[in-house]
Write a structure and sequence with these properties.
It contains 6 helices and no strands.
Length: 140
């Protein structure tokens, strides 16, 4: 069972090339792996059985067999990777988007975690854009 979990984690991390760009609500890595396990496990067992982890082998297998991969699995792959990409982007741009709110509502507070906690606590006084990037980053 643990071996299967690692396979699905490898899919989640190695299959970025398999997705297309679009907006989606963010999900955690754990939620993405769970979704892929539920929706792609049968396809992996059927089409990629016996493949070793690493080097993107599972992702390559699914891509090479894309005509045989279920629509549910394809949809879940796309949704999971779009969500993870959106989450990572939000985490990258958060400071720039929230800089004004940090200065206005949380000046004098030191430490990234404390500043973030301040912004979350003062949600009603923080800009819509800053609140959205905090949510998209998975910090709320």
């Amino acid at each position: 069972m643990l071996k299967g979990g690692f396979r699905l984690a490898a899919i989640a991390l190695a299959s970025v090339a398999y997705m297309t760009a679009a907006s989606a609500q963010t999900m955690s890595y754990a939620d993405a792996v769970t979704k892929l396990a539920n929706d792609c496990g049968a396809d992996i067992q059927k089409l990629c059985k016996g493949l070793n982890l690493g080097g993107g082998r599972i992702a390559d297998c699914l891509q090479q067999n894309s005509a045989k991969v279920s629509d549910t699995c394809k949809g879940s792959l796309t949704a999971a990777f779009q969500s993870i990409s959106q989450r990572e982007h939000a985490q990258t741009v958060y400071k720039g988007v929230c800089q004004r709110d940090m200065s206005k509502s949380c000046s004098g507070i030191k430490g990234d975690g404390f500043v973030l906690a301040c912004l979350v606590k003062k949600e009603s006084r923080v800009s819509k854009e800053c609140n959205q990037v905090i949510t998209d980053a998975g910090w709320r």
